[in-house]
Amino acid sequence: MISLKHQFLFIHVPKTGGNSIQNILKDYSEDDIVIMGEHQDGVERFEVRNANYQITKHATLAEYREVLDRATFEKLFKFATLRNPWDMMISFYFSPHRKVSAWDRDDFLSLLAETPTLRHYVHCPKVGEKLLGKMGLGAKGSLTQDIDFLIRFESIDEDFGKVCDRLEIPRVVLPKRNASSRAHYSSYYDEELVAKVADRFAEEIEWGGYQFERA
């Protein structure tokens, strides 16, 4: 979600509280919220449209850079959201749009394998980085090197308040949107699944200091 007037760019990472944030930011953005009609599910399912840019609700930072001129892109305050990956993956698994009510370990493994990491959403690799990456060489750079702020899902109201202060818009209590119905995330994991999530989302876990916690 983008606002040229208020000079912000919000990267909506799925299942990290982004619907609640976009529900507030829509009043300050040039984007349009489009309810998904027959595909509606959960509390609120919507798409984001902008007449000037071909972007989607979950557009990545790199995709925004492709459609914005450099000067505009550079001056925007860029932020995204982060969530404990073990919790996020269970929330994703039971997300209303998947229409899944029963736990299936193999289905979870398939979902885990295709779920992008946070770096996919918030990193803008330079030309040299892309080339080195294809060759399997070079450092990737820090996880947050291309954005200004990460909101933690676990402290979303406090962190979003800081964003509001930065953007000089009123602080509000975020509404709850698209919460999945499930038990505590830890009840779905065995030791192998804990390790597989830890391996896939190692950067997020290290950056956020996350741990797998039993209920």
Structural topology:
Blueprint: E1 2-3, E2 8-11, H1 18-25, E3 32-35, E4 46-49, H2 61-67, H3 70-75, E5 77-82, H4 85-93, H5 105-114, H6 118-122, H7 127-135, E6 149-152, H8 156-167, H9 191-200, H10 202-208
Parallel strand pairs: 2-5, 5-6
Antiparallel strand pairs: 1-2, 3-4
Please outline what is shown here.
This protein has 215 residues and is an alpha/beta fold.
Summarize the structure in words:
By secondary structure, the protein is α/β, with parallel strands linked by helices. The protein has a domain at 2-84 and 117-179. It has ten helices and six strands; from the N terminus they run ββαββααβααααβααα. The protein has helices at 18-25, 61-67, 70-75, 85-93, 105-114, 118-122, 127-135, 156-167, 191-200, 202-208; strands at 2-3, 8-11, 32-35, 46-49, 77-82, 149-152. Strands 1-2-5-6 form a four-stranded mixed beta sheet. A two-stranded antiparallel sheet has the order 3-4. It comes from Haloferula luteola. One of its GO terms (molecular function) is sulfotransferase activity. One of its GO terms (cellular component) is membrane. This is Sulfotransferase family protein.
